[in-house]
Amino acid sequence: MPGTLKAFECRRCGDCCQGRGGIVLMQKDVIRLSRHLNFSRDEFLSRHTTIEHNKVLLNSGPDGYCVFYEQGCGVHPARPDICRAWPFFRGNLIDETSWEMALDYCPGINRQAGHAEFKRQGLIYLRDQGMGADQSDDAPHALLNLPE
Fold it and tell me: How far out from the chain centre does Cα 104 lie?
């Protein structure tokens, strides 16, 4: 849409890269990161992850940031899906109050675009990235089981 404000543009500030145990890796994330770093799957897992409650977690450094964060994401092209999805998380999409809270946290979210436009662009982005609950449904709201 010409003239539409971009709802989000990552500034690579690292605010979303903080917090121990927050990055749960799916198998496709492990494969993508292993290839990107030229490690075998097992080498990647032993060097950069921890298993807790049967989940593979990306390690954090002593400073609480993701192990790959150094003045920006060191694996940005191969980052995990949870990182790719930010800030288009379900809560921010369905709840304007959550979106407003995210505005205070993430400088890449454009307040002027408004919540409705943020939701519209977010659902399209998630669909285009192959993320969501139902990839067979062309309706963007179906990706995260959201109401139309």
Answer: 17
